[in-house]
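Severity: low
Component: inverse-folding endpoint
Summary: output formatting inconsistent between runs
Steps to reproduce: submit the following structure tokens with default settings.
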């Protein structure tokens, strides 16, 4: 028998073909034309976008676009190098300082994406002989970083502080460095970590704590600094990780901390050293977006109004929504065919949401995931709700 290195993809290829035949090829979504932060032509059809991470709607913000265009004209399309070689431009250094000021931290490091930030931090800050205690629902980039670094990984049940304490107690006897990793808002179900309780456990057992605020920066906290600000525990969080690809509307990632030793990551971390730095256009629009985030809290307020309205509407309609109102509103389905029918029905009504399948989902279920934006008008939120309402006969 002739074996092929592609044999391992056979099952995937079959699943993909079944999707195509079923008109449910959710991995073949092409945004043909981007009209605004909330509208696009998707696979030839005009769509209201209810499945982006554009929380503050800044991708089309005038200041951000102008800053980005200026940067391209003045500095070109790319840096063509690592931060450790020729890829540190004045804009990277300025943005690091601006993020330190915003988060009131001593040190910030930029990475090329949020994925790379997690890869870099989790593979470098702890290693063999040390332990990472991980919320089970953490993002894939956190898991991948753990794998790359070689620390022992212990998962605790999602948002279950009793389970976390049980595991901390066991580790206490081993007298080793322990790093707890959680997210501000969890990307799949939109729920928040019980951060105040997690911080008291971290303090009690002398552990370190990383909070990935990818979905909560710009969304939570009086000043938009995320869950740590909202929970009033900023001083106790050792490392905050974030991304520019969500509320800041660009691409890139960062880690900020009061531990000045964080700077050593620049020399020790392969995902920092061996990749090119972000293009000036992304850095410039991110700097402008950070200014907007700081100076216009009304965007955050409008986002939450939208989120509360749609969450309540979907709950009243009987959809199986996540545990709390959030700009991420996920609807759980046990049955894949039912989820596909609703997803296709929404497209027919001109509404795009994300379809999320295992292994990306918690508990192996299927999710239809809406994520909202401050750029959505009240009418658009109404339209999204109406589209779901028209499909109530096919929901679980
Ligand atoms: C919690 C979390 N961390 C990190 C990332 C990666 O961010 P980026 O898109 O900047 O790579 C994501 C992306 O979805 C995320 O949800």
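Observed output (run 2 of 3):
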């Amino acid at each position: 028998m002739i074996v092929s290195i592609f044999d391992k993809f056979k099952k995937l290829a079959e699943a993909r073909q079944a999707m195509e035949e079923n008109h449910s090829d959710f991995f073949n979504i092409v945004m043909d034309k981007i009209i605004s932060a909330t509208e696009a032509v998707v696979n030839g059809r005009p769509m209201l976008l209810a499945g982006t991470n554009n929380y503050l709607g800044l991708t089309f913000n005038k200041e951000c676009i102008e800053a980005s265009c200026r940067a391209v004209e003045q500095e070109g399309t790319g840096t063509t190098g690592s931060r450790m070689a020729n890829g540190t431009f004045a804009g990277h250094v300025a943005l690091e300082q601006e993020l330190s000021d915003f988060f009131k931290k001593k040190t910030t490091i930029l990475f090329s994406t949020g994925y790379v930030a997690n890869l870099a931090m989790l593979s470098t800050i702890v290693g063999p002989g040390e332990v990472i205690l991980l919320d089970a629902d953490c993002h894939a980039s956190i898991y991948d970083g753990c794998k790359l670094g070689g620390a022992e990984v212990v998962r605790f049940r999602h948002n279950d502080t009793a389970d976390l304490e049980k595991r901390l107690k066991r580790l206490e006897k081993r007298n080793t460095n322990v790093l707890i990793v959680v997210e501000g808002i969890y990307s799949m179900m939109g729920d928040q970590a019980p951060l105040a309780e997690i911080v008291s456990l971290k303090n009690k057992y002398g552990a370190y704590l990383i909070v990935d605020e990818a979905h909560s920066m710009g969304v939570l906290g009086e000043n938009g600094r995320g869950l740590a600000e909202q929970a009033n525990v900023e001083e106790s969080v050792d490392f905050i990780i974030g991304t520019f690809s969500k509320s800041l509307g660009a691409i890139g990632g960062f880690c900020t901390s009061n531990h000045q030793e964080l700077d050593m990551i620049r020399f020790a971390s392969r995902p920092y050293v061996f990749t090119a730095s972000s293009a000036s256009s992304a850095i410039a629009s991110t700097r402008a977006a950070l200014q907007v985030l700081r100076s216009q809290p009304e965007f955050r307020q409008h986002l939450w109004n939208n989120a509360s309205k749609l969450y309540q509407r979907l709950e009243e309609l009987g959809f199986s929504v996540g545990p709390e109102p959030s700009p991420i509103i996920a609807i759980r389905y046990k049955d894949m065919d039912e989820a596909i029918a609703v997803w296709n029905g929404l497209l027919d009504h001109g509404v795009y949401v994300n379809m999320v399948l295992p292994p990306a989902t918690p508990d192996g279920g299927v999710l239809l995931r809406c994520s909202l934006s401050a750029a959505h008008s009240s009418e658009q939120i109404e339209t999204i709700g109406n589209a779901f309402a028209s499909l109530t006969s096919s929901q679980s």
